[in-house]
Each structure stands twice: as C-alpha cells, then as structure tokens.
Specification:
The chain is α/β, with parallel strands linked by helices and 270 residues long. It has one domain: Rossmann fold (3-Layer(aba) Sandwich). Helices cover 36% and strands 21% of the residues. The strands form two sheets. An eight-stranded mixed β-sheet has the order 1-2-4-3-5-6-9-10, sandwiched between helices. A two-stranded parallel sheet has the order 7-8. Helix 1 runs antiparallel to helix 5 and helix 2 packs across helix 3. The longest helix has 17 residues. The chain starts with a strand and ends with a helix.
Length: 270
C-alpha cells in the first residue's frame, strides 16, 4: 500500500489485527527482510505494520529527505497517521533499530516495548566499535550466484537454510536499494541523528521495555557500543550471542526466535 506523509510517498503493508507492532528493516534492505523472518512466528492478536524506509523497497520518493532526522520525522508522522495516539510496540534491525531508538526517545511512553536486533548506535562507521567477522562452514554450498560472496561477508553460520533465507529476505531489498541517495546522505555527514550524542543519556530513564540482541562477530555495528545503553534506571535488557554476526536471524535462529516469542507474549498482555 502507498501513503503520502509530508509530501513523501511511502510503501507499507499491514498484516493481521490486534495490538499494533511496527517493523523497521536494515539499511540496503526493505520490508521483505522483516516479513520473511517474522511472519512465520506470528500468532493472532498482533497487527503487523511493515514499512519500506525512504530510498529502499518501494519507498523511492526521496526528494524531500535529506538526513536521518527527516527519516525519523516521516516515521513518526506515519505512526501517528496509522495508529494515532494508540500505544504501540516496535521491532527494528540495524538501521531500523537506530530508527527505533529515535522513536523511543521522541515518543516516550507511547512505545510500550521494543525488540531490536543488531541496532546501530553510532551511524557514522568511523565511530563504531565493530567486531571481527568469521565464517563457520556447516555445509559446503556449490553455487555461482554473484550474491554468494556477500552472503559469506554477512553471515557467520554457512549452511543451505541460511543461504536460502538470504536469497528470500535480503536480495529483493538489495536489488531496489537507492545506493546513490544513501551514499550522498553519508558523504554529507547527515547519516547520524542531530541528537545522536545525547541519545544514550536520553534513554537512561526511559520506561519502555526494550530487548536487544547482538552478535559477538558483527562487523557492521559490533556489540560493545550498544552495551552503553544498559542502565539500572531504564528497562533495557541486552543479550550478546557468540558465533553470531549481523544476520542474527540465521546465525542464531533459536535464540532470536525464543526471545521474540517472549516479546510477542508480553505485548498481548498490554
């Protein structure tokens, strides 16, 4: 479906009915990555709202988008138009997790809970404390697909199921990614929120229940920066998983699924 927010057209999809949960994908991906991974885990009572962020998927109207603050404002206005003043839960991966942290900061108590995998904390790469990547070959795959090397660069656990997931969940979004637009955003130093330096402190006393999953071999966002979000005054809990990189969905599927099931059960009680 299409919706116009502040003269910018965005693409989204709503599945199911019940308590609203918004899903925000990672950079260079689209809502397909979240739909493919999360929909098999869904039960009744949850309305899933999947959004293509600007310059990704079918949200290619970017003429009025100049930085991540603009993206966050669009997302906030999108939420207000779709569910109004209703309380919501949010899920985000990587850059989508960064957007979620911004939402928690700006929307406060409206966010009942959040489930984040490998969220960005420092948008600019040079400011990230990243980890060393590795591959654990569980199955040797014979393929001439040019995307296979990108799969190796992203995933830790290499097996047929993970490769199949990569083809279904990641490649469709990568094929639609507006690389030139986002490279320009990054080159002009507009990738970070204008309030990024204050974000960790702002979240110190936030009362939203937040679950964060990280991988020790994540060469994209790492795991150490995110630990700075932990504070006795907030409700953030973090799980750091060994032998896992930026694609936790296939590197540690059982841990991710178990934690999400706990999250989904908790929002049904809201």
């Amino acid at each position: 479906m299409k919706i116009t927010i502040n003269n910018t057209q965005l693409n989204y999809e709503i599945v199911g009915t019940g308590f609203p949960v918004y899903f925000f994908h990672g950079m260079s991906q689209d809502s397909t990555s979240m739909i493919e991974n999360y929909e098999p885990l869904m039960t009744t009572g949850i309305k899933r709202i999947y959004l293509d962020l600007p310059g990704m998927g079918d949200s290619q109207d970017v003429s009025l988008v100049h930085n991540s603050d603009d993206v966050l404002r669009l997302v906030i206005d999108f939420i207000n138009q779709i569910t109004g003043d209703q309380s919501i839960a949010i899920c985000g991966h990587s850059y989508g997790g960064y957007i979620c942290l911004g939402l928690i900061d700006k929307l406060g108590s409206k966010i009942e809970s959040a489930f984040l995998t490998c969220p960005v904390v420092h948008a600019d790469k040079e400011n990230r404390d990243i980890s060393a990547h590795k591959n654990i070959i569980q199955e040797k795959l014979e393929t001439t697909d040019p995307n296979y090397q990108k799969f190796l660069d992203m995933n830790v656990l290499i097996n047929l199921k993970a490769w199949d997931n990569y083809q279904k969940a990641i490649i469709p979004g990568a094929n639609k990614f507006n690389l030139a637009f986002w490279n320009q955003i990054k080159a002009s130093h507009n990738y970070s929120f204008s309030f990024e330096k204050e974000l960790v402190a702002d979240l110190t006393s936030n009362n939203s229940d937040v679950t964060i999953l990280l991988g020790t071999n994540d060469q994209i966002v790492g795991y150490r920066d995110q630990l700075g979000l932990l504070n006795p005054a907030n409700e953030i809990q973090i799980m750091v998983l060994n032998d896992a990189g930026h694609n936790l969905f296939t590197d540690r599927p059982k841990d991710w699924q178990d934690q999400f099931k706990k999250f989904s059960k908790s929002i049904k009680k809201i």
